[in-house]
Design brief:
Length: 336
């Protein structure tokens, strides 16, 4: 019997055209609509957010009636910013907005857009995205000054061409960049981004933890060893996988998860540094988008980020990854 395929053996080749084609909502949000979003009655801001998305989308409505009748008035600001904690349905609402948008449109995480610019070059990325009705940006966070100015400039050019912006984040737009660099030195760029958005704040509990354990499930070595040698299943030593991620650009991580359904991880242990942790976060996002179940041994996956990391400027990225790791290991436990 041959060993299960290892993610560490995969060297993905993802060309720019494939990257652009992948800018659609993740599989679990393919059917996301305003009608099937279920607001928590204990948190009225969720129902209010649904109406805010509906109003924003009405700006694409057709003009009707006679000569002096006009269609829905376009929002004063070209962007809608959904701000809230983990698992309150922000991505569902953003995907629903994407489905309502007419014509050519794109949906991706913040890192996917910056990676696209890196792969294509700024001018070609602008040409690709220009003319789209909507650029939907999930998990909008600015991690360094370069990204701040890049996204400010990019969104400015796209908005001038008539494109509208939808975004989600765990950070209000006027606080982007806090804790990561000297935000005051880039206040003009940050404020410029903030001014483009109408902000809607959404309260609530993390739905991923409402019906799941509060910690990642450690399945154990026997469960990892029992994973089938079959297509869609991989088994990796955690340390070797982390080393492999250093050899693959994060823009190409989408190629690592092609066709993947279950991933086994052996000997999980705390990550050695921030660079490795951020690469792992990028992989977690791709695994979660692909709805991959995780079966792991060693340390619980929600404890791989050290206390110093959780206290630093990337805290929200790590907490989002922890929330997703809890969900994926619970999926692995249910499947085994």
């Amino acid at each position: 019997m041959t060993a299960p395929r290892r993610l560490a053996d995969v060297v993905p080749q993802v060309d720019p055209a494939r990257m652009a084609a992948s800018l659609v909502p993740p599989r679990q949000f393919a059917d996301a609509r305003l009608e099937n979003y279920r607001p928590d009655p204990d948190h009225p801001s969720q129902a209010e957010a649904v109406e805010a998305v509906r109003t924003f989308a009405a700006g694409w409505g057709p003009r009707t009636g006679g000569l002096f009748r006009r269609g829905p008035k376009a929002p004063e600001r070209p962007g809608l910013y959904l701000d809230g904690g983990f698992g309150v349905g922000k991505t569902h609402l953003l995907a629903a907005l994407w489905h309502l948008a007419p014509g050519r449109k794109y949906f991706g995480t913040f890192i996917e857009y910056t990676a696209l610019v890196g792969a294509l070059g700024y001018a070609d990325a602008v040409r690709l995205l220009s003319g789209a009705s909507l650029i939907a940006i999930d998990e909008f966070e600015l991690d360094d000054p370069g990204d701040t100015m890049l996204m400010s400039r990019l969104l400015g050019e796209l908005v001038q061409g008539g494109t509208r912006i939808g975004a989600t984040s765990n950070t209000p737009p006027n606080a982007l960049g806090e804790g990561r660099f000297a935000a005051a030195d880039f206040l003009r760029e940050i404020q410029g981004l903030s001014d483009r958005f109408t902000t809607v704040r959404i309260g609530g509990l993390d739905y991923r933890r409402r019906d799941a354990a509060e910690a990642a499930v450690v399945a154990g070595e026997s469960a990892v060893a029992a994973l089938p040698d079959a297509a869609g299943t991989t088994v990796d030593d955690f340390g070797a996988l982390i080393d492999h991620l250093a050899t693959v650009h994060p823009a190409r991580y989408v190629g690592l998860v092609d066709g993947l359904r279950t991933a086994g991880l052996r000997d999980v242990r705390p990550l050695p540094g921030q660079t490795e942790a951020l690469r792992f976060v990028a992989l977690v996002d791709r695994l979660y988008d692909a709805q991959v179940a995780l079966v792991a041994s060693g340390e619980p996956l929600d404890r791989v980020f050290g206390e110093d990391m959780l206290a630093g400027g990337y805290r929200k990225k790590y907490l989002r990854a922890i929330s997703r790791l809890v969900a994926m290991t619970n999926a692995g436990a249910r499947a085994s």
